[in-house]
């Protein structure tokens, strides 16, 4: 039985999973890291922390499962998109990784938008040029950190950096590069006009290969650090959204999945990258050959809950640590007793700006409508409902472009919460299906690794063995209540939009 390793680098944690080629998950390890947020617009991480987390999780996983590393035929790496790492000619990071959430490049985004507004959607699939995209961040670096920019030999995404550390090769793929603004999604090549506008060369970016490509084997230095075999193939997975769609079985048109992890993202597999005539829904390069993904993204979902827990849930954190429980479960249990609609309390979960379906980097989080009668449990439930309302707004937009959404496959850490799943089903008035293993990015990585090494004949075969349903949550008695609550949410979001623009836009 061949073994397959998946490594997925998220916004606030790195996860490593080991799978057997018959579909069994042998174990998953996770290492969290904190974002450095020196101001409201900035979000960064020590770039070396990603590799450290990779080493720690691989070591812990191999020790716990007790499998021979020589049995691991292949591993695949996936990651968040947009986060940019700057390396010198020795391959060493020389600046903190500018995380995708970082909004410092406002003026750079505005200037690039003015220059490329008529071409950007057809070339890149992004609906609007905003500070999130990697090209804006690189231009900010050029204009604000000229010494760093002058020493930069390579600009990498997080997946690219791990692949470099694993193999010594600089390689990327379209599914993770598609939201950099540097990548032409129809030509599957770097967009020279954008590179020129930002002031970098194509040789400062990695080589482009297809998703699911074996780019080499684990090099001797990485093998020594990780405890892996130098015979293990290293495979490009892609962006976490794309490989997560594979792990959810979302590989053909007609399937809709959503991931509630640090961010909230919806994945819709399509054949036509320009399906949205309004040019407002992001289009990604799928990790499935010949397919694309519509991927509306909301920057903070599970991350908003993590922030709330870290700031106001110390009792639950300590209890969970001492009793082997889950701190999030401890916080949601009282929220289950709160009536749908949180007695008028509305939460906007825009802790790092808003993206889909309305782009507003200046947006902020908000709890509105609370009174002396509201409790902390109300705030927890309102947060869960706010993320569900964001999901519904994006699903409604997907339906407006002519895509039928009959059922939503829910993945990510948020799908472990039965309360949250039921709230989503009631808010969206659609069945929510969960999977036996919600870590779909790791599953997608394992499937791509399995195809690359010959363990699976196709992605479809891999999905058949590794993606299994767990439970379906059907809309219930609170559907009517949530219709009114959803209207309140939308109205508040509209009313505060101008307020954010007037008071929180960087001047």
Automatic annotation (TrEMBL):
Molecular function GO terms recorded: kinase activity
GO biological process assignments: carbohydrate metabolic process
Domain annotation Carbohydrate kinase FGGY N-terminal: ranges: 4-247
UniProt domain Carbohydrate kinase FGGY C-terminal: residue ranges: 286-453
SUPFAM superfamilies in the record: Actin-like ATPase domain
Keywords (A to Z) from UniProt: Kinase, Transferase
InterPro entries (alphabetical): ATPase_NBD, Carb_kinase_FGGY, FGGY_C, FGGY_Carb_Kinase, FGGY_N
Annotated PANTHER family: SUGAR KINASE
Membership in a protein family: Belongs to the FGGY kinase family.
Protein name as it appears in the record: Xylulokinase
Organism for this UniProt entry: Pelolinea submarina
């Amino acid at each position: 039985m061949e073994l397959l390793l998946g490594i997925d680098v998220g916004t606030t944690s790195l996860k490593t999973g080991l799978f057997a080629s018959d579909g069994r998950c042998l174990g998953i390890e996770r290492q969290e890291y904190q974002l450095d947020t020196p101001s409201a617009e900035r979000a960064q991480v020590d770039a070396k922390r990603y590799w450290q987390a990779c080493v720690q999780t691989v070591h812990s996983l191999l020790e716990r499962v007790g499998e021979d590393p020589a049995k691991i035929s292949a591993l695949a790496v996936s990651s968040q998109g947009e986060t940019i790492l700057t390396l010198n000619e020795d391959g060493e990071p020389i600046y903190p990784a500018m995380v995708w959430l970082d909004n410092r490049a406002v003026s750079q985004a505005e200037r690039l938008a003015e220059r490329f507004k008529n071409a950007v959607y057809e070339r890149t699939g992004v609906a609007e040029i905003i500070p999130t995209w990697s090209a804006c961040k690189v231009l900010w670096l050029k204009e604000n950190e000229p010494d760093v920019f002058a020493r930069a030999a390579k600009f990498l995404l997080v997946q690219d950096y791990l692949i470099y550390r694993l193999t010594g090769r600089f390689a990327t793929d379209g599914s993770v590069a598609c939201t950099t603004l540097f990548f032409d999604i129809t030509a599957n090549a770097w967009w020279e006009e954008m590179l020129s506008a930002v002031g970098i060369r194509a040789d400062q970016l990695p080589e482009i290969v297809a998703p699911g490509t074996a780019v080499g084997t684990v090099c001797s230095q990485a093998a020594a650090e990780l405890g892996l075999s130098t015979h293990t193939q290293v495979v490009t997975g892609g962006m976490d959204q794309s490989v997560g769609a594979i792990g959810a079985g979302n590989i053909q048109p007609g399937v809709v999945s959503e991931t509630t992890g640090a961010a909230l993202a919806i994945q819709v597999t399509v054949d036509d990258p320009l399906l949205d005539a309004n040019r407002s829904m992001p289009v990604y390069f799928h990790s499935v050959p010949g397919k694309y993904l519509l991927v509306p993204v909301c920057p903070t979902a599970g991350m908003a809950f993590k922030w709330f827990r870290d700031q106001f849930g110390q009792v639950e954190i300590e209890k969970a640590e001492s009793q082997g429980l889950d701190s999030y479960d401890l916080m949601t249990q009282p929220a289950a007793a709160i009536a749908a609609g949180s007695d008028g309390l509305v939460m906007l979960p825009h802790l790092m700006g808003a993206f889909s379906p309305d782009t507003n980097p200046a947006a902020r989080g908000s709890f509105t409508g609370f009174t002396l009668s509201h409790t902390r449990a109300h705030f927890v439930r309102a947060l869960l409902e706010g993320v569900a309302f964001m999901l519904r707004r994006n699903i409604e937009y997907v339906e407006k472009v002519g895509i039928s959404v009959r059922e939503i496959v829910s993945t990510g850490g948020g799908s472990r919460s039965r309360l949250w799943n039921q709230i989503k089903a009631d808010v969206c008035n659609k069945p929510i299906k969960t999977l036996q293993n919600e870590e779909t990015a790791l599953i997608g990585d394992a499937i791509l690794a399995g195809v690359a090494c010959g363990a699976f004949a196709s992605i479809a075969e891999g999905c058949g063995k590794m993606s299994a349903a767990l439970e379906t949550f059907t809309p219930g008695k609170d559907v009517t209540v949530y219709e009114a609550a959803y209207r309140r949410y939308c109205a508040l979001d509209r009313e505060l939009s101008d307020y954010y623009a007037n008071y929180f836009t960087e001047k």
